[in-house]
Specification:
The chain is about 70% helix and about 0% strand. It is an all-alpha fold. Helix 3 runs antiparallel to helix 4. The longest helix is centred in the middle third of the chain and has 30 residues.
Length: about 425
Amino acid sequence: MPRPEPLPRTVRLLLLARGVNQLGAFSLPFLAALISAGHGASLTVAGLVTAAFGLATIPSRLAGGALADRIGRRTTIVLGLCGCAVAQLVIAASASLAWTVAGALLLGLAFELYEPPSQAIIGESVPERQRVRAFSLLGAALAAGGMGAGLLAALLGRWDLRWLFVIDAATCLACALLIRLALPHDRPAPPGAGPAGTAVRPLRDRALMGVLATGTAYALINQQTVMTLPLALEQQGLPAADAGLLFTATAATTVLAQPLIALRRTSRLATPAALALAHLLLAAGLTGYALAHALPALLASAVVWSLGDLLVIGRVYALVTALAPPGASGRYLAVFGTGWGVAATLAPVLGTQLLARTGATALWSAMAALCLLLAALHLRVTQRPPVRRSAGTARGSATGAAAGTDPGDVPPSRPVRSAHR
Protein backbone atom coordinates (compact mmCIF):
# COMPACT_ATOMS: atom_id res chain seq x y z
CA MET A 1 0.00 0.00 0.00
CA PRO A 2 1.54 3.37 -0.99
CA ARG A 3 2.34 5.81 1.76
CA PRO A 4 -0.41 8.47 2.09
CA GLU A 5 0.44 12.03 1.15
CA PRO A 6 1.13 14.24 4.15
CA LEU A 7 -1.66 16.61 5.09
CA PRO A 8 -1.04 20.38 5.03
CA ARG A 9 0.34 21.94 8.21
CA THR A 10 -2.89 23.89 8.71
CA VAL A 11 -4.95 20.71 8.81
CA ARG A 12 -2.51 18.92 11.12
CA LEU A 13 -2.59 21.82 13.57
CA LEU A 14 -6.37 21.95 13.44
CA LEU A 15 -6.61 18.22 14.17
CA LEU A 16 -4.28 18.66 17.14
CA ALA A 17 -6.30 21.58 18.48
CA ARG A 18 -9.60 19.73 18.15
CA GLY A 19 -8.09 16.71 19.89
CA VAL A 20 -7.08 18.96 22.80
CA ASN A 21 -10.58 20.39 22.89
CA GLN A 22 -12.16 16.92 22.83
CA LEU A 23 -9.97 15.85 25.73
CA GLY A 24 -12.14 18.01 27.94
CA ALA A 25 -15.44 17.34 26.20
CA PHE A 26 -16.89 15.20 28.96
CA SER A 27 -19.08 17.70 30.77
CA LEU A 28 -22.18 17.62 28.57
CA PRO A 29 -23.33 14.07 29.47
CA PHE A 30 -23.32 15.18 33.11
CA LEU A 31 -25.44 18.31 32.58
CA ALA A 32 -28.69 16.55 33.48
CA ALA A 33 -27.03 14.94 36.49
CA LEU A 34 -25.80 18.34 37.74
CA ILE A 35 -29.24 19.88 37.31
CA SER A 36 -30.90 17.01 39.13
CA ALA A 37 -28.37 16.33 41.91
CA GLY A 38 -26.86 19.79 42.30
CA HIS A 39 -30.08 21.80 42.26
CA GLY A 40 -32.69 19.25 43.32
CA ALA A 41 -34.64 19.47 40.06
CA SER A 42 -36.76 16.59 38.82
CA LEU A 43 -35.62 14.31 36.02
CA THR A 44 -38.33 15.85 33.82
CA VAL A 45 -36.88 19.33 34.30
CA ALA A 46 -33.37 18.02 33.68
CA GLY A 47 -34.54 16.35 30.47
CA LEU A 48 -36.28 19.52 29.26
CA VAL A 49 -33.16 21.62 29.86
CA THR A 50 -31.06 19.10 27.97
CA ALA A 51 -33.55 19.15 25.08
CA ALA A 52 -33.44 22.97 25.10
CA PHE A 53 -29.67 22.74 24.78
CA GLY A 54 -30.10 20.47 21.76
CA LEU A 55 -32.52 22.91 20.11
CA ALA A 56 -30.11 25.79 20.69
CA THR A 57 -27.38 23.97 18.77
CA ILE A 58 -29.38 24.25 15.51
CA PRO A 59 -29.18 28.08 15.17
CA SER A 60 -25.65 27.82 16.57
CA ARG A 61 -24.58 25.59 13.66
CA LEU A 62 -26.22 27.90 11.08
CA ALA A 63 -24.62 30.96 12.66
CA GLY A 64 -21.23 29.23 12.61
CA GLY A 65 -21.48 28.61 8.87
CA ALA A 66 -22.60 32.16 8.12
CA LEU A 67 -19.89 33.71 10.29
CA ALA A 68 -17.22 31.42 8.81
CA ASP A 69 -18.00 32.68 5.31
CA ARG A 70 -18.27 36.32 6.45
CA ILE A 71 -15.72 37.07 9.18
CA GLY A 72 -13.39 34.14 8.55
CA ARG A 73 -12.88 30.57 9.71
CA ARG A 74 -10.21 31.22 12.34
CA THR A 75 -12.11 34.08 13.97
CA THR A 76 -15.35 32.06 14.12
CA ILE A 77 -13.62 29.05 15.69
CA VAL A 78 -12.02 31.21 18.38
CA LEU A 79 -15.33 32.99 19.03
CA GLY A 80 -17.21 29.72 19.41
CA LEU A 81 -14.63 28.13 21.72
CA CYS A 82 -14.48 31.20 23.96
CA GLY A 83 -18.28 31.30 24.08
CA CYS A 84 -18.36 27.65 25.17
CA ALA A 85 -15.78 28.35 27.87
CA VAL A 86 -17.80 31.26 29.26
CA ALA A 87 -21.01 29.21 29.28
CA GLN A 88 -19.34 26.27 31.03
CA LEU A 89 -17.91 28.55 33.70
CA VAL A 90 -21.39 30.03 34.24
CA ILE A 91 -22.76 26.51 34.77
CA ALA A 92 -19.91 25.61 37.13
CA ALA A 93 -20.32 28.77 39.21
CA SER A 94 -24.12 28.94 39.22
CA ALA A 95 -25.73 28.89 42.63
CA SER A 96 -29.29 28.55 41.34
CA LEU A 97 -31.17 26.49 38.79
CA ALA A 98 -32.02 29.63 36.78
CA TRP A 99 -28.32 30.44 36.22
CA THR A 100 -27.61 26.83 35.28
CA VAL A 101 -30.41 26.89 32.70
CA ALA A 102 -29.08 30.20 31.33
CA GLY A 103 -25.59 28.71 31.09
CA ALA A 104 -26.96 25.62 29.31
CA LEU A 105 -28.79 27.74 26.73
CA LEU A 106 -25.70 29.90 26.19
CA LEU A 107 -23.63 26.75 25.78
CA GLY A 108 -26.05 25.46 23.14
CA LEU A 109 -25.87 28.74 21.22
CA ALA A 110 -22.05 28.63 21.20
CA PHE A 111 -21.58 24.86 21.01
CA GLU A 112 -21.70 24.43 17.23
CA LEU A 113 -20.17 27.73 16.12
CA TYR A 114 -16.75 26.20 15.55
CA GLU A 115 -17.84 23.04 13.72
CA PRO A 116 -18.63 24.48 10.23
CA PRO A 117 -15.43 26.57 10.03
CA SER A 118 -13.33 23.62 11.25
CA GLN A 119 -14.83 21.40 8.56
CA ALA A 120 -14.51 24.15 5.95
CA ILE A 121 -10.79 24.57 6.69
CA ILE A 122 -10.24 20.86 6.18
CA GLY A 123 -12.31 20.73 2.99
CA GLU A 124 -10.63 23.77 1.48
CA SER A 125 -7.06 23.05 2.55
CA VAL A 126 -6.56 19.69 0.85
CA PRO A 127 -6.94 18.48 -2.73
CA GLU A 128 -10.07 16.50 -3.52
CA ARG A 129 -8.32 13.15 -3.41
CA GLN A 130 -7.36 13.75 0.26
CA ARG A 131 -10.68 15.02 1.61
CA VAL A 132 -12.14 11.69 2.69
CA ARG A 133 -8.94 10.83 4.56
CA ALA A 134 -8.71 14.29 6.15
CA PHE A 135 -12.29 14.21 7.45
CA SER A 136 -11.77 10.65 8.69
CA LEU A 137 -8.69 11.81 10.59
CA LEU A 138 -10.77 14.56 12.19
CA GLY A 139 -13.07 11.83 13.49
CA ALA A 140 -10.04 9.90 14.73
CA ALA A 141 -8.65 12.96 16.53
CA LEU A 142 -11.98 13.50 18.27
CA ALA A 143 -12.18 9.80 19.15
CA ALA A 144 -8.66 9.82 20.61
CA GLY A 145 -9.49 12.87 22.70
CA GLY A 146 -12.74 11.22 23.75
CA MET A 147 -10.91 8.21 25.17
CA GLY A 148 -8.87 10.48 27.45
CA ALA A 149 -11.99 12.47 28.28
CA GLY A 150 -13.69 9.38 29.65
CA LEU A 151 -10.82 8.72 32.04
CA LEU A 152 -10.77 12.33 33.25
CA ALA A 153 -14.53 12.27 33.74
CA ALA A 154 -14.26 9.12 35.85
CA LEU A 155 -11.68 10.80 38.09
CA LEU A 156 -13.14 14.29 38.42
CA GLY A 157 -16.78 13.20 38.50
CA ARG A 158 -16.21 11.42 41.81
CA TRP A 159 -15.02 14.67 43.32
CA ASP A 160 -17.47 17.33 42.13
CA LEU A 161 -19.43 17.47 38.86
CA ARG A 162 -18.79 21.22 38.60
CA TRP A 163 -15.09 20.60 38.01
CA LEU A 164 -15.98 18.77 34.80
CA PHE A 165 -17.27 22.05 33.38
CA VAL A 166 -14.24 23.97 34.64
CA ILE A 167 -11.79 21.59 32.95
CA ASP A 168 -13.90 21.55 29.79
CA ALA A 169 -13.76 25.36 29.72
CA ALA A 170 -9.99 25.24 30.14
CA THR A 171 -9.56 22.91 27.16
CA CYS A 172 -11.80 25.17 25.05
CA LEU A 173 -9.60 28.15 25.88
CA ALA A 174 -6.42 26.13 25.19
CA CYS A 175 -7.81 25.09 21.82
CA ALA A 176 -8.82 28.68 21.01
CA LEU A 177 -5.32 29.94 21.85
CA LEU A 178 -3.70 27.26 19.70
CA ILE A 179 -6.00 28.07 16.77
CA ARG A 180 -5.39 31.83 17.16
CA LEU A 181 -1.60 31.46 17.22
CA ALA A 182 -1.11 28.62 14.75
CA LEU A 183 -3.66 29.09 11.98
CA PRO A 184 -3.23 31.83 9.37
CA HIS A 185 -5.72 34.67 9.15
CA ASP A 186 -8.21 34.10 6.36
CA ARG A 187 -10.04 36.58 4.15
CA PRO A 188 -13.57 35.36 3.44
CA ALA A 189 -15.45 36.02 0.23
CA PRO A 190 -18.02 38.86 0.12
CA PRO A 191 -21.26 37.92 1.91
CA GLY A 192 -23.70 35.97 -0.23
CA ALA A 193 -21.33 35.80 -3.17
CA GLY A 194 -21.10 32.61 -5.16
CA PRO A 195 -19.64 31.88 -8.58
CA ALA A 196 -19.82 34.89 -10.88
CA GLY A 197 -21.47 36.94 -8.14
CA THR A 198 -24.50 34.67 -7.79
CA ALA A 199 -26.19 34.40 -4.41
CA VAL A 200 -25.54 31.27 -2.34
CA ARG A 201 -28.75 29.60 -1.12
CA PRO A 202 -27.94 26.20 0.39
CA LEU A 203 -31.58 25.45 1.23
CA ARG A 204 -32.45 25.58 -2.49
CA ASP A 205 -29.79 23.06 -3.45
CA ARG A 206 -31.66 19.79 -4.05
CA ALA A 207 -28.51 17.70 -3.85
CA LEU A 208 -27.65 19.19 -0.45
CA MET A 209 -31.21 18.68 0.79
CA GLY A 210 -30.98 15.01 -0.18
CA VAL A 211 -27.74 14.60 1.76
CA LEU A 212 -29.28 16.49 4.70
CA ALA A 213 -32.28 14.13 4.79
CA THR A 214 -30.20 10.94 4.80
CA GLY A 215 -27.63 12.55 7.11
CA THR A 216 -30.30 13.47 9.67
CA ALA A 217 -31.57 9.88 9.68
CA TYR A 218 -28.01 8.63 10.16
CA ALA A 219 -27.44 11.13 13.00
CA LEU A 220 -30.63 9.94 14.71
CA ILE A 221 -29.34 6.36 14.61
CA ASN A 222 -25.91 7.45 15.79
CA GLN A 223 -27.35 9.31 18.76
CA GLN A 224 -29.27 6.21 19.84
CA THR A 225 -25.96 4.37 20.25
CA VAL A 226 -24.83 7.14 22.60
CA MET A 227 -27.86 8.32 24.53
CA THR A 228 -29.96 5.15 24.76
CA LEU A 229 -27.25 2.49 24.98
CA PRO A 230 -26.81 2.53 28.80
CA LEU A 231 -30.56 2.13 29.34
CA ALA A 232 -30.73 -0.63 26.73
CA LEU A 233 -27.91 -2.53 28.43
CA GLU A 234 -29.75 -2.40 31.76
CA GLN A 235 -32.87 -3.78 30.10
CA GLN A 236 -30.78 -6.63 28.66
CA GLY A 237 -29.56 -7.50 32.16
CA LEU A 238 -26.09 -5.94 31.85
CA PRO A 239 -24.58 -3.09 33.90
CA ALA A 240 -25.15 0.35 32.37
CA ALA A 241 -21.48 1.07 33.04
CA ASP A 242 -20.59 -1.45 30.32
CA ALA A 243 -21.59 1.29 27.87
CA GLY A 244 -18.28 2.95 28.73
CA LEU A 245 -16.42 -0.12 27.47
CA LEU A 246 -18.44 -0.08 24.25
CA PHE A 247 -17.72 3.64 23.78
CA THR A 248 -14.02 2.97 24.27
CA ALA A 249 -14.10 0.12 21.73
CA THR A 250 -15.84 2.42 19.26
CA ALA A 251 -13.27 5.19 19.73
CA ALA A 252 -10.33 2.77 19.51
CA THR A 253 -11.68 1.29 16.27
CA THR A 254 -12.09 4.75 14.77
CA VAL A 255 -8.43 5.48 15.50
CA LEU A 256 -6.89 2.11 14.63
CA ALA A 257 -8.90 1.50 11.45
CA GLN A 258 -7.76 4.70 9.72
CA PRO A 259 -5.46 2.78 7.29
CA LEU A 260 -8.58 1.18 5.78
CA ILE A 261 -9.55 4.57 4.36
CA ALA A 262 -6.31 4.69 2.35
CA LEU A 263 -6.75 1.23 0.81
CA ARG A 264 -7.01 1.42 -2.99
CA ARG A 265 -10.15 -0.73 -3.03
CA THR A 266 -11.84 1.54 -0.48
CA SER A 267 -10.73 4.87 -1.96
CA ARG A 268 -11.86 3.91 -5.48
CA LEU A 269 -15.45 3.28 -4.39
CA ALA A 270 -17.88 5.87 -5.71
CA THR A 271 -19.52 7.89 -2.95
CA PRO A 272 -23.03 6.33 -3.25
CA ALA A 273 -21.54 2.82 -3.13
CA ALA A 274 -19.26 3.71 -0.20
CA LEU A 275 -22.15 5.17 1.81
CA ALA A 276 -24.34 2.14 1.03
CA LEU A 277 -21.56 -0.20 2.22
CA ALA A 278 -21.13 1.91 5.35
CA HIS A 279 -24.82 1.60 6.23
CA LEU A 280 -24.73 -2.14 5.67
CA LEU A 281 -21.94 -2.33 8.26
CA LEU A 282 -23.98 -0.12 10.60
CA ALA A 283 -26.95 -2.43 10.17
CA ALA A 284 -24.78 -5.47 10.95
CA GLY A 285 -23.45 -3.85 14.13
CA LEU A 286 -26.92 -2.84 15.30
CA THR A 287 -28.24 -6.32 14.60
CA GLY A 288 -25.47 -7.55 16.88
CA TYR A 289 -26.69 -5.17 19.57
CA ALA A 290 -30.20 -6.59 19.14
CA LEU A 291 -29.18 -10.24 19.38
CA ALA A 292 -26.18 -10.20 21.72
CA HIS A 293 -26.61 -10.70 25.46
CA ALA A 294 -22.96 -10.97 26.51
CA LEU A 295 -20.28 -8.28 26.65
CA PRO A 296 -17.81 -9.92 24.19
CA ALA A 297 -20.49 -10.16 21.49
CA LEU A 298 -21.53 -6.55 22.14
CA LEU A 299 -17.91 -5.41 21.83
CA ALA A 300 -17.60 -7.20 18.48
CA SER A 301 -20.81 -5.50 17.33
CA ALA A 302 -19.42 -2.13 18.42
CA VAL A 303 -16.33 -2.71 16.28
CA VAL A 304 -18.45 -3.53 13.20
CA TRP A 305 -20.66 -0.49 13.85
CA SER A 306 -17.57 1.72 14.15
CA LEU A 307 -16.22 0.60 10.78
CA GLY A 308 -19.44 1.73 9.15
CA ASP A 309 -19.35 5.00 11.06
CA LEU A 310 -15.77 5.57 9.89
CA LEU A 311 -16.81 5.19 6.24
CA VAL A 312 -19.77 7.55 6.62
CA ILE A 313 -18.00 10.49 8.25
CA GLY A 314 -15.21 10.94 5.72
CA ARG A 315 -17.39 10.47 2.65
CA VAL A 316 -20.36 12.57 3.63
CA TYR A 317 -18.40 15.67 4.65
CA ALA A 318 -16.25 15.41 1.53
CA LEU A 319 -19.46 15.24 -0.51
CA VAL A 320 -21.00 18.32 1.14
CA THR A 321 -17.77 20.26 0.65
CA ALA A 322 -17.73 19.35 -3.03
CA LEU A 323 -21.37 20.42 -3.48
CA ALA A 324 -20.66 23.90 -2.09
CA PRO A 325 -19.85 26.76 -4.47
CA PRO A 326 -16.45 28.45 -3.95
CA GLY A 327 -16.39 30.43 -0.71
CA ALA A 328 -19.64 28.90 0.60
CA SER A 329 -18.53 25.63 2.15
CA GLY A 330 -19.05 27.02 5.67
CA ARG A 331 -22.74 27.64 5.00
CA TYR A 332 -23.23 24.31 3.24
CA LEU A 333 -21.56 22.38 6.05
CA ALA A 334 -23.62 24.34 8.60
CA VAL A 335 -26.92 23.48 6.92
CA PHE A 336 -25.91 19.82 6.73
CA GLY A 337 -24.87 19.88 10.39
CA THR A 338 -28.32 20.99 11.56
CA GLY A 339 -29.31 17.36 11.19
CA TRP A 340 -27.22 16.60 14.27
CA GLY A 341 -29.14 19.20 16.28
CA VAL A 342 -32.45 17.68 15.18
CA ALA A 343 -31.14 14.23 16.09
CA ALA A 344 -29.87 15.38 19.49
CA THR A 345 -33.34 16.75 20.25
CA LEU A 346 -35.40 13.79 18.99
CA ALA A 347 -33.13 10.86 19.88
CA PRO A 348 -33.73 10.85 23.67
CA VAL A 349 -37.51 10.96 23.22
CA LEU A 350 -37.65 8.40 20.41
CA GLY A 351 -35.15 6.04 22.02
CA THR A 352 -36.71 6.00 25.47
CA GLN A 353 -40.22 5.53 24.05
CA LEU A 354 -39.16 2.62 21.84
CA LEU A 355 -37.22 1.12 24.71
CA ALA A 356 -40.14 1.41 27.13
CA ARG A 357 -42.80 0.15 24.70
CA THR A 358 -40.96 -2.51 22.69
CA GLY A 359 -37.66 -3.33 24.43
CA ALA A 360 -33.99 -3.21 23.52
CA THR A 361 -34.13 -5.91 20.83
CA ALA A 362 -36.89 -4.10 18.94
CA LEU A 363 -35.09 -0.75 19.32
CA TRP A 364 -31.85 -1.97 17.74
CA SER A 365 -33.71 -4.00 15.12
CA ALA A 366 -35.63 -0.88 14.07
CA MET A 367 -32.41 1.11 13.82
CA ALA A 368 -30.80 -1.70 11.75
CA ALA A 369 -33.80 -1.70 9.39
CA LEU A 370 -33.47 2.06 8.98
CA CYS A 371 -29.80 1.57 8.07
CA LEU A 372 -30.78 -0.91 5.37
CA LEU A 373 -33.28 1.60 3.99
CA LEU A 374 -30.60 4.30 3.95
CA ALA A 375 -28.19 1.97 2.13
CA ALA A 376 -30.78 1.50 -0.63
CA LEU A 377 -31.52 5.24 -0.75
CA HIS A 378 -27.85 6.14 -1.15
CA LEU A 379 -27.56 3.86 -4.18
CA ARG A 380 -30.62 5.46 -5.79
CA VAL A 381 -30.61 9.14 -4.84
CA THR A 382 -27.18 10.20 -3.57
CA GLN A 383 -25.23 12.06 -6.24
CA ARG A 384 -21.58 11.74 -6.98
CA PRO A 385 -19.65 14.92 -6.08
CA PRO A 386 -19.52 17.36 -9.00
CA VAL A 387 -16.23 17.77 -10.87
CA ARG A 388 -15.07 21.37 -10.86
CA ARG A 389 -11.95 22.24 -12.76
CA SER A 390 -10.02 25.44 -12.29
CA ALA A 391 -6.51 26.70 -12.58
CA GLY A 392 -4.41 26.59 -9.48
CA THR A 393 -3.16 23.95 -7.15
CA ALA A 394 -3.84 22.95 -3.58
CA ARG A 395 -1.38 24.86 -1.43
CA GLY A 396 -2.66 23.84 1.98
CA SER A 397 -4.01 27.27 2.87
CA ALA A 398 -6.78 27.58 5.41
CA THR A 399 -9.08 29.45 3.00
CA GLY A 400 -10.10 29.36 -0.57
CA ALA A 401 -12.53 27.95 -3.05
CA ALA A 402 -12.36 24.20 -2.88
CA ALA A 403 -13.25 22.19 -5.94
CA GLY A 404 -14.68 18.72 -5.61
CA THR A 405 -14.36 15.35 -7.25
CA ASP A 406 -15.24 11.96 -5.91
CA PRO A 407 -12.14 10.05 -4.82
CA GLY A 408 -13.89 6.95 -6.09
CA ASP A 409 -14.34 8.48 -9.56
CA VAL A 410 -10.74 9.57 -10.15
CA PRO A 411 -7.88 7.06 -10.40
CA PRO A 412 -5.14 7.77 -7.84
CA SER A 413 -2.56 8.33 -10.58
CA ARG A 414 -4.61 11.06 -12.22
CA PRO A 415 -3.72 14.59 -11.08
CA VAL A 416 -6.58 16.43 -9.40
CA ARG A 417 -6.33 20.16 -8.90
CA SER A 418 -8.32 22.69 -6.95
CA ALA A 419 -8.23 26.46 -6.74
CA HIS A 420 -7.51 28.20 -3.44
CA ARG A 421 -7.74 31.86 -2.68
